[in-house]
Structure to design on (463 residues):
């Protein structure tokens, strides 16, 4: 992956510091970048030896960086994931980083996994291959999983249990960095279940937001693009390009391709006059828009139309780089703001429950008073709303222990009290629950009322 970088060592310095600090400390993490923000450029930058030397110093030789690009999956299955991981290790780790004997053993394991085309065989090959690498090399293995969203969303939960178990078996010698477009908790309903939860908590303890470029990095990108096109940069023109694009890599590249193309011939005034009707600009904006969750879109739509939004979601959007860190907050790009203004506002009705940033909306009404235990119970019920949740399920999920083991004097009465407190806060009438239903002799079920049953959004709650 090593090639000459077009960026200086100061490129993405804040984000690079964060990721290198995780690596130095032996920790895992999640880089969350908006679409079109240059995630691939960032990864290429991290893999440069001079960058690693700058941030890791004398410890550079203590680490082996391996990129697993999940766009290259032969098939989106657990077997495909394991096969790609083995292929990536073979392609990117060579002597003298490991011994020839270790490389031969790893090659044989990969051949066996491909020949068998069996998930368990491939899983065992990965486990044994990582063990061989850890024994044969003193360096810590850092696995970067790029384009991780679809894999995390679609693959079997057992795969994430295996990844966590592999890390636990070689805790001081292996770490994961996953690159996604959104927070992992938004991609699966079962992130609170054990097989997935342990992996989610492992990589979710450290999170880095990858938003638009700052002015210095945007200027570096413009300089590189100008050199490629034999264009002499004008400072005033460059500043306007950066300001209108907000420093977002995709928009900045689209604007320069228009400006320096035959249609506009470097005439920025004409480009500014017609840019809102350009399909390439609309495509870049839509790419960013489609990478957002519904509540994120709703908040941006409100801000673009000068309506207030909840501070928590505003802070999250600032972290993601979607908003400037101003008061009042502004969208990162005037071009993107115009695009958002044209989008139909999302409905404020219905039920929406999510972890990051934490949000509970019941029939359009925000609930902000839930305790951690109440929130965990509600999340579990909501994520399993297609079935009855037994008391055993709830106790295990909420209290993190098996039902029937009375550690801390856990009793049925405690669970009943918890559900009662939850109903007190979310139900219009706690005596006649609409959302958290009791299923006699079995447990509880989350129900979303039909339109006829749904209480009016302005209705007063009964005491």
């Amino acid at each position: 992956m090593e090639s000459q970088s077009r960026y200086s060592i100061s490129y993405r310095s804040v984000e690079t510091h964060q990721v290198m600090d995780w690596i130095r400390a032996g920790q895992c993490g999640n880089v969350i970048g908006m679409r079109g923000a240059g995630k691939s450029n960032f990864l290429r930058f991290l893999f440069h030896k001079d960058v690693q030397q700058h941030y890791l110093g004398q410890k550079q030789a203590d680490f082996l960086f391996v990129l697993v690009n999940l766009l290259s999956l032969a098939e989106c299955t657990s077997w495909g994931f394991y096969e790609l991981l083995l292929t990536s290790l073979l392609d990117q780790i060579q002597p003298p980083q490991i011994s020839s004997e270790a490389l031969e053993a790893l090659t044989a394991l990969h051949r066996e996994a491909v020949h068998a085309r069996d998930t368990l065989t491939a899983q065992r090959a990965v486990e044994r291959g990582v063990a061989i690498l850890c024994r044969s090399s003193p360096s810590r293995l850092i696995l970067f999983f790029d384009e991780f969203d679809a894999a995390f969303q679609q693959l079997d939960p057992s795969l994430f249990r295996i990844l966590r178990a592999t890390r636990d078996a070689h805790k001081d010698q292996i770490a994961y960095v996953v690159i996604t477009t959104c927070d992992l908790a938004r991609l699966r309903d079962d992130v609170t279940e054990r097989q997935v939860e342990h992996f989610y908590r492992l990589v979710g303890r450290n999170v880095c937001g990858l938003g638009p470029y700052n002015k210095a990095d945007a200027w570096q990108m413009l300089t590189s693009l100008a050199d490629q096109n034999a264009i002499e940069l004008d400072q005033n023109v460059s500043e306007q390009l950066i300001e209108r694009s907000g420093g977002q890599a995709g928009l900045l590249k689209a604007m320069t391709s228009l400006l320096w193309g035959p249609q506009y011939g470097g005439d920025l005034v004409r480009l500014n006059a017609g840019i809102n009707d350009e399909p390439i600009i609309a495509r870049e904006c839509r790419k960013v828009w489609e990478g957002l969750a519904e509540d994120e879109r709703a908040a941006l739509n409100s801000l673009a139309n000068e309506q207030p939004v909840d501070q928590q979601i505003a802070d999250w959007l600032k972290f993601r780089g979607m908003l400037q860190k101003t008061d009042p907050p502004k969208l990162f790009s005037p071009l993107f703001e115009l695009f958002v203004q044209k989008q139909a506002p999302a409905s404020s009705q219905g039920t929406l429950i999510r972890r990051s940033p934490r949000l509970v909306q019941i029939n359009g009404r925000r609930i902000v008073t839930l305790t951690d235990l109440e929130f965990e119970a509600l999340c579990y019920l909501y994520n399993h709303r297609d079935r009855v949740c037994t008391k055993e399920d709830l106790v295990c999920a909420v209290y993190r222990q098996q039902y029937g083991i009375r550690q801390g004097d856990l009793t049925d009465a405690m669970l009943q009290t918890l559900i009662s407190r939850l109903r007190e806060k979310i139900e219009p009438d706690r005596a006649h629950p609409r959302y958290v239903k009791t299923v006699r002799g079995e447990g509880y079920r989350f129900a979303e009322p039909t339109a006829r049953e749904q209480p009016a959004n302005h209705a007063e709650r009964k005491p």
